[in-house]
Every structure is written in C-alpha cells, then in structure tokens.
Amino acid sequence: METKRPNFFIVGAAKAGTTSLYQYLSQHPEVYMSPIKEPNYFSTEIKFEEVRTEVKERIRLLKINSFLKGNMRKPIHRAFINDIKQYESLFRFVGNQKAIGEASASYLYSPYAAKAIQEYNSEAKIIIILRNPIQRIYSHYLMDRRMGITNLPFEEALEAEKSYQPRQWSYILYLELGEYSQIQTLH
Predict the structure, then answer these.
(1) Which of 36, 91, 130, 155 is 20 to 30 Å from 75 by CA-CA measure?
(2) What is the mean pLDDT of the chain?
(3) What's the pTM value of the predicted model, to 2 decimals?
C-alpha cells in the first residue's frame, strides 16, 4: 500500500489561528488532517529532552507510541515525532481525501523545516498565518496564565522572558515568537 504524504502544511505563528484553521479543515470531507495537530517532525532542532518540564509531562501522559499504533480517533494537540515511520503512520488512515495536511507552528521558526519539507514533498503547499505581534504576545501570555505556566503580571513576564534558557520553541518566548522578520535567528 502506498504511503500517503501531506500535501500541505500550516506553519503559522503561535497564537495566530493555526488550531482554528486545523479544526475547520478537519471537518471538510475532502481534507485529512494529521491526528496529532502539531507533530513538529520537520523542526529537527527541537530536542524533546530540552522542552519545558510541564510540556514533557503532558506529552508523556499521552502515550504517543500507543496512540500511533491505535485508531487515532481522538486528536492530540502536540507531540515531538522524530521517526519517519511514526510520522507517516499519522497518515495511514487517509482515504480519498484530496488535501492531506498537518499544522505545526514550530515550522515557521525552525531554521531547518522549510528545506526538510521541500525535500520530503517538493509539491507541498505552505499556509502561513500571522497575527498582529502585540495581540499575539498578549494572547500567548493569557494562555500561559490560564495553564499556570506564569503567574506574573504581563510586564514582569515580558521582562522575565529575557533570562530563559535555552531559547528554543517550547520555552516562553513572548517577544521572539512575534518578531517575524527575525525568525531565522531562533535556533
């Protein structure tokens, strides 16, 4: 049986509407969306061992290996897939859908993702969603407050961000993730 590969990727900015677009497209009968919204497969610089502790714990609880071997009926928001067989297993239930996609916001910031996607499927389409950087920052901050990642007032959270190490995708990068003209510097 031929492996179906994604023919489009949503790589928009974090907190810019990628999840909404993913959900809308998932409802269309001619679209197949990866059951893991953000597999982050092509962001090869992200090392799972280095992601924030709370992100690691959430992902460990999801039991990704079991999920990938199962029916994958209940979508998962995020994982860090780094094996091609695991990645392609996300698309094993593709039927007659014309559009096959996934939505990893990390690809916009990755210095490697665009080239890796092009090498994987040179015909793939890329959808980039951006948001007003100020609105994006504040939305990101509010999400982190709701999730208990920060309890600092907004201005203090922005100041505290400057000291966070390592400076990679899964860490709190309110300002950097909105600096669209500087994206390739995040690695």
Answers:
(1) 130
(2) 87
(3) 0.86
